[in-house]
Description:
Blueprint: H1 2-20, H2 27-36, E1 55-58, E2 73-76, H3 78-84, H4 96-103
Antiparallel strand pairs: 1-2
Amino acid sequence: MLNYFRQKRRKIINTFFNKLGINALTNEEWQDILKKFEYKCAYCGIEFNDRVIPTKDHIIPLSIGGYNIKENIIPACRSCNAKKHNKILDSNNLPISLFRSWFFN
Length: 105
């Protein structure tokens, strides 16, 4: 029952943010993120190509209240994104490339 109310609350919040344009990552923003990370996975550093396709990894997962905004998304290969699952990264397990992109670009 509690899960039902969480899903209902999340749907209401997301609808509200979508109407305001807050919870919407544009394709242009996604391309900027990929460029900032040099078209590489933020975790393992593998370069994206026709065989290795980038996925949008949410730093704070959507399933636990994160939003689909550029500040909450990093590029990840499918393997790394699947390994992270719905965990929140803390300062002890953030990828080096994420720190580099935040502080040195």
